[in-house]
Backbone:
């Protein structure tokens, strides 16, 4: 089983600041990694797939990078509506999610 | 517009059973693998089960293997999961999602709450 470890657990930043979220895999997942945004009471939303491709209608301030075991989700300039929990997910070997990073703005 | 509407969530005693449904619209249902993903209170997302577009292949997390059965009715555009021998640790919001082991979870429903408690 591939374990995804996300850090930090919580990120508290101000509007306009840059957020950097990390996801580390216990073994290589190549680029089979995605990022989701989840707000309370809402459906999760796919942000980034294949490590660095933005999903449909996702703003350009969201970007993903990395391959192998280390991945980064960057929100270049935080908006108030970006408050959410962000999860990484791999499908290289079966399916698993990371524990999430809560972004507070 | 893609819509996924879960139903069937309820409060049930340990050892009981429940069937969840997910009504899909806005896309060619039979062409897509589908999955159930859950989130326990205060916890992260956990993939539970998946099924191929035809329904011929099914997949389960170890935590539910042998207790849950996923199925679909492509004539009704509906996804199901039959949950048997429920445990307290199955308490969660259950989401249906388009996707599986070979595709990303591109769309999700709003979820339905399952509570297992005595």
Residues:
């Amino acid at each position: 089983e591939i374990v995804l470890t996300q850090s930090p657990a919580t990120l508290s930043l101000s509007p306009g600041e840059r957020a950097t979220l990390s996801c580390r895999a216990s073994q290589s997942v190549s680029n089979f990694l995605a990022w989701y945004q989840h707000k309370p009471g809402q459906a999760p939303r796919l942000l980034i797939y294949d490590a660095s491709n933005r999903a449909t209608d996702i703003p350009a301030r969201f970007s993903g990078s990395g391959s192998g075991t280390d991945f980064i989700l960057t929100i270049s300039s935080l908006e108030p509506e970006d408050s959410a929990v962000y999860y990484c997910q791999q499908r290289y070997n079966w399916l698993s999610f990371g524990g999430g990073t809560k972004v507070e703005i | 517009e893609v819509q996924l509407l879960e139903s069937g969530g309820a409060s049930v005693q340990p050892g009981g059973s429940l069937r969840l449904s997910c009504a899909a619209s806005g896309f060619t249902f039979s062409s897509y693998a589908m999955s159930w993903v859950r989130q326990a209170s205060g916890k992260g997302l956990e993939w539970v089960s998946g099924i191929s577009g035809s329904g011929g292949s099914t997949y389960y997390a170890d935590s539910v293997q042998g207790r849950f059965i996923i199925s679909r009715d492509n004539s009704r555009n509906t996804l199901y999961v039959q949950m048997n021998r429920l445990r307290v640790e199955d308490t969660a919001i259950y989401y249906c999602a388009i996707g599986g082991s070979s595709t990303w979870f591109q769309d999700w429903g709003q979820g339905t709450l399952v509570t297992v408690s005595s």
Observations:
- Chain B touches chain A through 22 residues (CB under 8 Å).
